UniProtKB/TrEMBL annotation:
InterPro entries: HemC (IPR000860), Porphobilin_deaminase_cofac_BS (IPR022419), Porphobilin_deaminase_N (IPR022417), Porphobilinogen_deaminase_C (IPR022418), Porphobilinogen_deaminase_C_sf (IPR036803). It catalyses: 4 porphobilinogen + H2O = hydroxymethylbilane + 4 NH4(+). It comes from the Bacteria. One of its GO terms (cellular component) is cytoplasm. This is Hydroxymethylbilane synthase. Pathway: Porphyrin-containing compound metabolism; protoporphyrin-IX biosynthesis; coproporphyrinogen-III from 5-aminolevulinate: step 2/4. The lineage of its organism: Bacteria, Pseudomonadati, Pseudomonadota, Alphaproteobacteria, Parvularculales.
Length: 328
């Protein structure tokens, strides 16, 4: 790797994050030959501390995003690569903007199975008696609805590490010193599996009707300083308009709900011609309650659509579910 790229893109050092950042650098270098965009891996506290839960770091933003933002603010990097899903949606970062999003990859969730397990058997038993690892309250809540007979355990860490633990039958350490039983299956982002070259590990893709993705899932975002005009101009040039419209609608839902990082909120927007279709949901942590809202709107006004869907969720009682899932 170029030790001192002229356009360093800050990133976490995981396999997945590096793959995403290389994709972003390729896109920039194709649009601006000679720019010298290249990944600048930074190690974050969230990566070093694999044991504690994300919430301990003040949420997703606290875990991964803030340290990379610090490098952006002090000028060590020109842009920062984030999985959009990991960026808090209910507040803006002062002085920073999302300058570009890359074309969205598969937005959904997939099931990876321990080698030797047959998908047919798993599905026929509806997960009964199986241990399923999941890393978010959204996935946990949907799993409890879908396969109530399965035991869902908290699983986190880099995607390739999680897969290795699944394959080797390694238990996962918990913050309280205990450990989970080895998992039979993991729920992971399909886009993450694709990016680390593990597409063949996706034994089953959850239909959106069974598990609606996280807001922003599958989208790579490039953040930069609001006052870095030369950078902003380059990022504007590679911004993917259909993805931008979708994420503006989705993230407006988060904004309206004021959803904290631990809230089981889901949402997905898709563009068809000039029309955006947006569906969003809020669940109770045990999956017993599911509130959904959906609407269509012009692609040119994505935030209005997101706002309407967010407010419809609140009308239907979403606020109580979000408050109930707030960490004490
Ligand atoms: N929270 C971790 C994270 N952040 C982004 C992705 C990959 C998919 C994406 O780009 O949304 C993942 C891994 C996962 O959820 O399994």
């Amino acid at each position: 790797m170029d030790p001192k790229p002229s356009f360093p893109i800050g990133t976490r050092a995981s396999t997945m994050a590096l793959a995403q950042t290389r994709a972003a650098a390729d896109r920039l270098n194709a649009a601006f030959p000679g720019l010298g965009a290249a990944p600048a891996p930074l190690s974050t506290r969230g990566d070093r501390d694999q044991v504690s839960r994300l919430e301990r770091h003040g949420g997703k933003g606290g875990a991964f995003v803030e340290e990379i933002r610090a490098a952006l603010r002090d000028g060590r990097i020109a842009a920062a690569m984030h999985s959009l899903k990991d960026m808090p949606g209910d507040e803006e970062a002062p002085g920073l903007v999302i300058g570009a999003v890359l074309p969205r990859e598969a937005p959904g969730d997939a099931l990876a199975l321990r080698p030797g397990l047959a998908l047919d058997d798993f599905l026929a038993r509806r997960g009964e008696g199986f241990v399923i690892g999941a890393g978010s309250v959204r996935r946990t809540a949907y799993l409890r609805r879908l396969w109530p007979g399965a035991r869902v355990v908290h699983y986190r860490g880099a995607a390739d590490t999680r897969l290795r633990k699944l394959d080797e039958g390694v238990p996962q350490k918990l913050p309280d010193g205990g450990e989970t039983p080895p998992a039979d299956a993991l729920v992971m982002a399909r886009a993450g599996l694709d990016r680390i070259g593990a597409s063949d590990r996706a034994a089953y893709d959850f239909p959106y009707s069974a598990m609606l993705p996280a807001i922003g899932q599958g989208v790579v975002a490039l953040e930069c300083r609001a006052d870095a005009f030369a950078v902003r101009e380059k990022l504007a040039r590679i911004d993917d308009a259909p993805t931008r419209a979708a994420i503006e609608a989705e993230r407006e839902v988060l904004w309206v709900l004021n959803g904290h990082c631990n809230a089981p909120i889901a949402g997905h927007a898709r563009l068809e011609g000039e029309t955006l279709h947006l569906k969003a949901a809020v669940l109770s942590e045990d999956g017993a309650a599911l509130i959904e809202a959906e609407a269509d709107g012009p692609a040119a006004r994505p935030r209005a659509l997101g706002r309407a869907v967010g407010l419809a969720l609140i009308e239907k009682g979403a606020r109580a579910l979000i408050d109930a899932s707030r960490p004490a």
